[in-house]
């Protein structure tokens, strides 16, 4: 079967152990203010337009009348027409078999590093049948699998996929329901419920919390306490601004223009104080 | 001033008792050792007659044989006008013996054209790795005994053995003179200097005649002989000096090593190799191995050219030490894989016990430590040029002369196989040229510039009674370097796709487009330049790359060297790649005439690998590297962030181990500097492959928003 993904990233090092290939699923049911992959939110292919690279030659208009209008449906015909790299399509249909064969190309690297494949997104569990087919095939090939999820899907999805997943990287964005709704657009009721259920399974489970000053930083202690109560580890991921340029390319305003990344030293100290993990990864 | 002091080498050479070149050169060295003005620089600790040989108008050089230097001659005339006539007589006497001049004299006009137009070149000089382990084990006394033993067998070679012995005497003479100087200096030296002087005096009581008694003496003996005549490659450093280091006082030995390291840097020493396995897979990492890596990290010098040999039993701690050294951004150590190099050497007939004594030489040439004369560049081939010849029926598009073979009008080729066949014929034609040229040069070296000094330290010479340059060493294989294999693979893949599979263009159109440097062929240029590139784990182009590598490497091995071995191939192009690129016309991969872009290693053409390091390595692993008997370098670039965290460091090590397990021979790692990042902002087109790993995922640097680029640049300043 096919699904919609927007990238296959090889040599990933921070989405689970070892050298990994990360498959980014398109489509998410959360709208986190700090999302660094805004192109992952909509489920359909989208055009990214890098204004600063456009020289106004009009080559795109010659292949598509909708090139500069809001009627764009993300067909992407204008992309090869642009010689300046100003246009990019995010999102494509792939078969599960194609994703698996791409991921297996680096199997030797997984073996030497203790790595594997991570399904990320977006929310990979929104395309659960597609995800399952990929995960099954990877397990048949003896590859370590990880799923990175925000957790806001029916509990049955976890039940169905858990046998094929070695490691869940489970995002927790906060405990306070109102604040969670404000930051992500959804309540965290189902998320926390799934987290509790998953903690009882034998799958490896690592909680991760994006630490966003001014948005959910007040939640750090509560999230740490929640993870601890389930006997699981928590890892902080510090806010960074890598996605900013992509908002402009999608013709959207950046939701939190005033937020600033926390200092690595501060994060380290905080993590140590409340018993969480943190590794500075460069931003 | 007399000529004996002004030009001691020349004087000795001219006044030798026998006319053969070995005796003349040995006498030159002897006179040189007796007469050169010595300098005793106590701050260096270790002393040697540094660089004095090349300060003469007539000298003997490692790479170029007998050399004349007009500038020094003129300076001497200016300083001693009364000697003008004599100096000129000397100078003119040596003109017919100037080795490089003799080599060019014998070049045919066609050979010269091939060289000028950067199709290929060939030479016969180069690097060597004398057996310092042997010298340190037996001293000059032991070597003299060895000569005496073989004298009895080769009774007709007594002149040659005299010449060999003469060089040992010369080394002892320098040591004795240095000791006398130290004694004389003692009387008025400051207290701190006295400690060093006394140490030197004491050392010279023992060395070079006998085995050193401690690490200080071992360093002095090593340094004395290393610099004697010419600085080159220390070779298997921890093998030669490791045992002395192991048991010495930890502070003193590290201080000695530091001093030696500074001297290496001062003299721009070539390749120094540490770490190794033996033929049973046993690991020989020792304290010196670790401390060399530590020192390289601390000093951050760009020389010596540091090499680390690894194998499946390399300790994790050594891998980590290597990664930490790489993280400094010095680009060293280069990492070589015993599991690929040794079998490649064994396939040439070198027994496993010796193949495991390989070390690197110069840039990336392979030598068997103290047993071979193969660690040099015998020649170089521009693979792109062979394709150009195939496409233009033997015409060089730089000079528009017919330099290649006439393999037929490519416009009439009906199949891709026909093109491949023509290309391979051109390669073979060029290979024949190179090996002929190289052998010609090797012979000239043997008769004009033998090296009795190296002969004593390289196994086989004393045993056979043959000079180092004249087939003396046990192994005499050759090494030829390639330029532009990846670019040629890209070109062939594009032709295969657009001309023979999709049939979008004809061969005639392509040839016309190349001839016009793509002017008026925008669509064709776009198609060809954006087609699959090697380095992205794409089967079509990777298969072609593997095929042309296989053909090239195997063909050279059918050719014999004058020195008594086979020609092998490797790739270490680096700074020369742009020059070769410039001399190629337009290529079907989209390189235009006048552009210099050519791959700088066996990896992707510049900026063409866009799928990350695992994809690049998968592509490169497609080629059979067990055929490479010279350094087959793969260059990779990483951002410093890769080496900043434990996770990143571990991932790098796993990456390297996977590559080596998959048949990779060599890795050279660049950790990208701030300057390069800054350049990427100004010239993004040159840095399309530059990956920065930030915030848990990687991004091509040039795709990042300008403020973030700035952010990363600023941060990299404070790295590590």
Notes on the structure:
The complex is a heterodimer of chains A (283) and B (720). By secondary structure, chain A is of the alpha/beta class. Chain A has two domains: 227 residues, Alpha-Beta Barrel (TIM Barrel); 44 residues, 2-Layer Sandwich (Alpha-Beta Plaits). Helices cover 32% and strands 21% of the residues of chain A. Chain A is built from eleven helices and ten strands. In chain A, the strands form two sheets. An eight-stranded mixed beta sheet of chain A has the order 5-1-2-6-7-8-9-10. A two-stranded antiparallel ribbon of chain A has the order 3-4. In chain A, strand 7, helix 6 and strand 8 form a beta-alpha-beta unit. In chain A, helix 3 packs parallel to helix 5. The C terminus of chain B is likely disordered. Chain B starts with a helix and ends with a helix. With 720 residues, chain B is an alpha/beta fold. Chains A and B meet through strand 1 and helix 4 of A and helix 27, helix 28, strand 18, strand 19 and helix 30 of B.
Which residues of chain B form runs of ≥5 with pLDDT under 50?
Answer: 693-698, 716-720
Main beta sheet of chain B: 6 strands, mixed
Number of strands of chain B: 19
For the secondary structure, the number of strands of chain A is 10
SS-based structural class of chain A? Answer: alpha/beta
Percent of residues in helices of chain A: 25-40%
Question: Main traits of this protein?
Answer:
heterodimer; A: 283 residues; alpha/beta; TIM Barrel; Alpha-Beta Plaits; 2 domains; eight-stranded mixed β-sheet; two-stranded antiparallel sheet; 32% helix; globular; B: 720 residues; 4 domains; six-stranded mixed β-sheet; five-stranded mixed β-sheet; 30 helices; 50% helix; disordered C terminus
Summed up:
Chain A has helices spanning 59-63, 78-81, 96-104, 107-113, 128-140, 155-161, 177-184, 189-199, 220-229, 244-249, 264-274, and strands spanning 2-12, 20-25, 46-49, 87-90, 92-95, 116-120, 144-149, 167-171, 204-211, 233-238. By secondary structure, chain A is of the alpha/beta class.
């Amino acid at each position: 079967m096919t699904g919609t993904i927007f990238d296959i990233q090889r040599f990933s090092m921070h989405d689970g152990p070892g050298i990994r290939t990360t498959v980014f699923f398109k489509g998410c049911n959360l709208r986190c203010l700090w999302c660094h992959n805004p192109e992952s939110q909509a489920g359909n292919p989208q055009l990214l337009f890098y204004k600063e690279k456009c020289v106004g030659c009009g080559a795109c208009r010659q292949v598509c009348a909708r090139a500069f209008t809001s009627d764009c449906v993300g067909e992407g015909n204008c992309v090869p027409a642009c010689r300046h790299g100003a246009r990019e399509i995010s999102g494509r249909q792939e078969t599960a078999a194609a994703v698996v064969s791409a991921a297996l190309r680096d199997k030797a690297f997984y073996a030497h590093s203790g790595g594997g494949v991570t399904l990320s997104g977006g929310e990979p569990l929104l395309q659960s049948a597609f995800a399952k087919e990929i995960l099954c095939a990877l397990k048949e090939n003896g590859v370590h699998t990880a799923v990175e999820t925000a957790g806001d899907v029916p509990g049955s999805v976890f039940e169905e996929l858990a046998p094929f997943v070695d490691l869940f990287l489970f995002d927790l964005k906060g405990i306070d329901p109102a604040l969670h709704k404000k930051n992500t657009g959804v309540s965290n009721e189902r998320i926390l419920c799934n987290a509790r259920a998953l903690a009882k399974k034998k799958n490896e489970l690592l909680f991760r919390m994006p630490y966003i000053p001014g948005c959910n930083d007040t939640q750090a202690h509560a999230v740490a306490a929640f993870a601890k109560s389930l006997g699981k580890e928590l890892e902080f991921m510090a806010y960074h601004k890598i996605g900013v340029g992509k908002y402009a390319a999608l013709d959207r305003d950046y939701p939190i223009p005033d937020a600033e990344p926390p200092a690595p030293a501060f994060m380290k100290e905080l993590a140590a104080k409340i018993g969480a993990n943190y590794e500075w990864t460069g931003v | 001033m007399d000529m004996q002091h002004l030009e001691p080498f020349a004087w000795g050479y001219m006044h030798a008792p026998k006319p053969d070149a070995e005796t003349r050169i040995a006498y030159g060295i002897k006179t040189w050792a007796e007469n050169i003005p010595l300098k005793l620089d106590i701050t260096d600790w270790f002393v040697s007659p540094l660089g004095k040989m090349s300060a003469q108008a007539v000298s003997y050089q490692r790479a170029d044989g007998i050399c004349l230097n007009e500038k020094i001659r003129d300076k001497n005339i200016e300083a001693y006008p009364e000697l003008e006539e004599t100096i000129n007589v000397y100078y003119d006497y040596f003109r017919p013996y100037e080795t490089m001049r003799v080599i060019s004299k014998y070049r045919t006009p066609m050979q010269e054209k091939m060289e000028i137009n950067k199709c290929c070149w060939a030479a016969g000089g180069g690097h060597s790795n004398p057996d310092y382990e042997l010298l340190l084990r037996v001293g000059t006394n032991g070597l003299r005994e060895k000569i005496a033993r073989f004298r009895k067998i080769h009774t007709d070679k007594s002149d040659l053995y005299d010449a060999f012995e003469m060089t040992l005497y010369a080394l002892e003479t320098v040591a004795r003179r240095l000791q006398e100087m130290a004694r004389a200096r003692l009387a008025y030296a400051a207290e701190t200097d006295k400690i060093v002087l006394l140490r030197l005096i004491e050392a010279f009581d023992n060395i070079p005649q006998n085995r050193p008694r401690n690490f200080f003496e071992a360093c002095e003996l090593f340094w004395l002989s290393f610099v004697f005549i010419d600085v080159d490659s220390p070779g298997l450093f921890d093998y030669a000096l490791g045992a002395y280091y192991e048991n010495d006082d930890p502070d003193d030995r590290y201080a000695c090593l530091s001093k030696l390291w500074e001297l290496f840097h001062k003299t721009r020493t070539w390749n120094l190799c540490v770490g190794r396995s033996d033929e049973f897979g046993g690991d020989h990492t020792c304290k010196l191995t670790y401390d060399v890596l530590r020192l390289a990290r601390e000093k951050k010098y760009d020389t010596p050219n540091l090499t680390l040999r690894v194998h499946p039993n390399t300790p994790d701690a050594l891998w980590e030490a290597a990664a930490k050294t790489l993280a400094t951004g010095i680009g060293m150590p280069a990492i070589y894989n015993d599991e690929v190099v040794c079998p490649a050497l064994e396939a040439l007939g070198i027994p496993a016990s010796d193949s495991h004594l390989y070390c690197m030489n110069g840039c990336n040439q392979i030598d068997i430590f103290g047993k071979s004369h193969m660690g040099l560049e015998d020649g170089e081939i521009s693979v792109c040029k062979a394709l150009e010849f195939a496409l233009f029926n033997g015409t060089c598009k730089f000079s528009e002369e017919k330099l290649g073979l006439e393999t037929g009008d490519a416009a009439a080729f009906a199949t891709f196989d026909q093109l491949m066949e023509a290309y391979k014929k051109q390669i073979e034609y060029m290979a024949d040229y190179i090996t002929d040229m190289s052998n010609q040069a090797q012979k000239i070296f043997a008769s004009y510039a033998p090296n009795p000094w190296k002969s004593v330290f390289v196994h086989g010479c004393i045993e056979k009674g043959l000079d180092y340059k004249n087939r003396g060493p046990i192994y005499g294989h050759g090494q030829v370097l390639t330029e532009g294999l990846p670019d040629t693979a890209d070109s062939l893949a594009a032709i295969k796709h657009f001309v023979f599979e999709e049939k979008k263009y004809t061969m005639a159109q392509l040839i016309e487009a190349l001839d016009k440097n793509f002017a008026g062929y925008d669509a064709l240029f776009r198609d060809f330049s954006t087609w699959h590139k090697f380095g992205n784990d794409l089967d079509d182009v990777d298969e072609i790359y593997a095929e042309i590598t296989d053909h090239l490497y195997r063909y050279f091995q059918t050719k014999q060297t004058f020195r008594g071995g086979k020609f092998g191939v490797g790739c270490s192009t680096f700074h020369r790649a742009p020059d070769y690129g410039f001399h190629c016309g337009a290529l079907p991969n989209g390189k235009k005439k006048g552009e210099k872009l050519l791959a700088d290693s066996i990896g992707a053409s510049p900026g063409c690998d866009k799928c990350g390091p695992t994809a690049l390595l998968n592509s490169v692993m497609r080629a059979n590297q067990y055929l490479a008997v010279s350094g087959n370098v793969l260059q990779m670039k990483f951002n410093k962030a890769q080496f900043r965290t434990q996770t990143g460091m571990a991932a790098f090590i796993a990456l390297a181990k996977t590559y080596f397990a998959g048949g990779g021979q060599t890795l050279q790692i660049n950790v990208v500097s701030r300057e390069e990042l800054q350049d990427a902002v100004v010239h993004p087109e040159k840095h399309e492959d530059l990956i920065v790993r930030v915030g848990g995922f990687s991004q091509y640097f040039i795709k990042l928003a300008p403020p973030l680029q700035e952010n990363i640049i600023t941060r990299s300043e404070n790295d590590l």
